[in-house]
Each structure stands twice: as structure tokens, then as C-alpha cells.
Amino acid sequence: METITIKVDQEVAKAYRESDSKKQEKISVIIKLFLQPEFANKSLSDVMAEIADKAKKRGLTPEILEDILNDEE
Fold this sequence. Notes:
It is a single chain. By secondary structure, the chain is an all-alpha fold. It has one domain. The protein is about 65% helix and about 0% strand. The protein is built from 4 helices and no strands. The model has no long low-confidence stretch (mean pLDDT about 85).
């Protein structure tokens, strides 16, 4: 893994620093997905739609995703 720097406003930086490691890891996964070569030349909404399509095809429903994102364990 490599560390990079991304400019964000103070509120976002503070929220990230104060979030737990699981949430930080989830954010890292989202950034990784967004910057993958297959998505590099697409808009954020196109990337999100494509990721949602792939998730749905794999059986990930909005309810399951919400459970995963809200998992505090």
C-alpha cells in the first residue's frame, strides 16, 4: 500500500481523522474503486451506477449494503 494526500476542507479532514479505522477503510475502498482504470474517464455518477449494477448482479441489495455500512462490530 502507498499513502497519498487528498485536499479536502477542514470539516471533512476532521471527520475522517475522528472516524474509526473501519470507516476509514471503507472510504479507502470507495476511492480505490473510483480511481480504477476502468472508471478513470467516467463521471462520478456513471461510476456509481456501474458499481451499483455490479453489486446488484452479485446479489448485493440496498438493504444488505446498509447493514454492511452500519455494522459497528
